[in-house]
Amino acid sequence: MNWKKLLLAGVILGGLVVVIFHTTQVRATNVTIDKNLSVTPSIISFATVFPGEVNFRPLDINLSSTFLNDQYRDDVEYHISQLVMPKIISDDDYCQSNPTDYTRCYPSLCPYLSKEADGTPGNDTGVAAFHDPLLPTSIALGRLAKSDNDTSDNWVIDLHTPCFVGECDQTQDTPPEYQLDPSLNGEKFGCNLQIIVDKISCVDGSEVVLPQPPPSPVAPPCANPNPEGDLTGVITSRANGTATVTNKSNTCSYLVGYASYKEVDTNIDHQIYFSSDMKVIGPDGTISLAIDVPTCAYQQDLFYGNLIESFAGGIRYGTRKLSSNHNESKGFCPAICAPQLVTRTQGFWKTHTSFTSNVFANQLGGSMTVGTGGPRKNHYQFNR
Hints:
Layout: E1 6-12, E2 17-22, E3 31-32, E4 37-40, E5 43-46, E6 54-63, H1 65-68, E7 73-83, H2 92-97, E8 113-116, E9 140-145, E10 152-160, E11 188-202, E12 207-209, H3 227-230, E13 231-237, E14 242-247, E15 254-262, E16 272-281, E17 286-290, E18 298-304, E19 321-327, H4 348-351, H5 353-362, E20 367-370, E21 378-381
Antiparallel strand pairs: 1-2, 1-11, 2-5, 3-4, 4-6, 6-10, 7-9, 7-11, 8-10, 11-12, 13-14, 14-17, 15-16, 15-18, 18-19, 20-21
C-alpha cells in the first residue's frame, strides 16, 4: 500500500521553503500513511535559502503502533519515490506526463533532494542529490523489523539549493545538467515523495507482497471540467467484476477507475487493495471496466480521478465515487500474517463408536490374574 503518502516540498529560491507531509485529508503532527507505518514530523520548514546552500532536516519513518502490537507481523520493506508536484491535487496524474507545464505543475525540486539513511542497522539505501527522479537508482529503500529491534528509520532530507545557468560560481556544486533556467528565478518549486509499503514479513518466516496497481493513463486537460455532472457509472456484475461509465460531456475527458479491496474486518481503514482498472473516458463516450474479485469478503468502488490504495487515516473517495458495493457472504479475508487455524480430523476410535464400545467392554474391562501360587500372586484390575 499501499499509499500514503505525499511529501510536498515547495521552494521559492532565495525565499521560504516549506515541506509538508499529508495524506490527502490528514494533517497532523504524527501522520499515519497506512496501518503499518507512521511519519514524523508533519511539517519540515527550511528558512530562507540561497543557491549553493545545503539544508538538512530530519524525517522519521516508524512502525505504527498497530504493527508493533501485532504479534504475527515482523518487518516492513518500503520505498520512497518522487513525483512532480501539481498545483492542485486533481492534476497529479497530468503533471507526471506534462512536468514542464508550469501553469499546472511546479518546477521539480526532486533532483535536488537527497535522502540519507541513518545506517543503524545498514539495511536502508539512500539517494544523493542531483539525480534523475525517474531512474530506479533514485528510489530510496527502507526496512524496519521488530526482530532486529529496528522500529524507526531516522532519515535526513537534504536540500541542495541549485543555481541558475550563468550565475553559478566555483564554490557551488550544481552539475551543469542540473543548473536552472534563469527564467525560473523566483518561481516556486515542488516535489512529491511517496512512501510505499512493498512487502510485509511475518514472524513465521512467510512473506506478503502487496499488489501494486498498474500505471494510470492521463486525461487531456479540459477548460471547464464537471465530472460530478458529466459522469455516471454502474457496477454491472460484482461477482464478475465488471462496470461501465458514461460521459455526457462533449468536450471533456476524465480519468475513471474501478477497484476491489479485501475486507479483513468491519473497519474500512483496514481494507487491502486487490485489483483495479483505470481508463480515460472521452467526450460522449461509454467504456467498460473489469477487475479481479477476491474469493473472500470485499468492497468494490467505481470512481473518477486517482486510485486510492489505502483507506488508512480516513482517506475516502467521497464525492468522486460513482458506485460501490461490498459482499461479506464468503466471510472476512485473513488479515496479513494472520495465523492459520489448525483443524483436527476425528480419528478411528471417535468415528467407530460401536467398535470402540465393544473393545472397552469386552477386551479392556474386568480383571485378569498374573502368576500363580502363594504370596507372589498379583491381581490387576482394569477399569474402563
